[in-house]
Design brief:
The complex is a heterodimer of chains A (about 240) and B (about 70).
Chain A: H1 12-34, H2 48-75, H3 78-110, H4 118-139, H5 143-170, H6 190-240
Chain B: H1 5-46, H2 57-60
Classes of the chains: A mainly alpha (about 240), B mainly alpha (about 70).
Amino acid sequence: MSRNRSGSWLNLGSIFGLITAVVVTIALYMALIYAPTDSVQGVSQRILYIHAPVAWIAYLAAFVVFVGSIGYLIKRTQFWDQLARSAAELSLIFVTLALVTGSLWGRPIWGTWWTWDARLTTTLILWFIFLGYFMLRSYVAEQGRAATYAAVLGVIGFIDIPIIHMSVQWWRTLHPEPVVVRVEGPNMPNEMLIALLVSILAYTLLFACLLYQKFLIERAKDQLAERRFELVERQAEGAAF
Amino acid sequence: MDDNLMYVFVAFLISWIVIGGYLVTLGRQVQNLREEADELSSEAISSPESPRPTSGQERASVDPITR
């Protein structure tokens, strides 16, 4: 164990990371060993314990992008843009994972890797929106304009979330309807429900850790850029005299 | 072995490779930022037109680990 730059052995981030690692380990144990094997789908149903949490994190990250984007459009401060772009990166990663794990679950159950089903298609649209978010940021040279355009796209991305969630009820689809978030209450055995909830908690903690680290990195990048600009200006002023 | 077990294994493996890879990327970004902060700090010190920063002040304000 080494000291960090602030001189303490462990900072708050390290403790939070350690707690997350423990909860993630418990979640993996519950998903792969504790939870009973489904009598209909067999062992492939265990993909639920990774697929549902990563899909939830994709939603949550898109919500953070939405909050950051609205905040930026109203306040025009770097904080909100840093928050939105940090969460957007995580949203893109977790939407990708939701699509990949869903495909790996669909193959043994539906007999196909992919189908143009309402839930899958609307999720793919969300993936393209966040891909576009980063393309937009890299193509627009002026930082303020890039942040504004990206914020608008971030808001549009979040509008897709309720459409994705309701797609299984609005359209005829292969994807099953929600089994946990239902008016009648969860529709699964207790052991499965506990394993799923622990997995959701574990990935939520992981998301919080990653978002916090990414946000600090984005903030430091902006601070460095500002200081470099100030230094260049001072040097130019010095050269002029 | 249940054939479907392979799908479960691959789903978990891919997810954790991606998450692990992302963690490594974040670590590299922090390292690069520290190097850039050090470089900027030494540039600021060597520049005759700029005031000399107090010890660690320049880097501390941009170091993502120092809070």
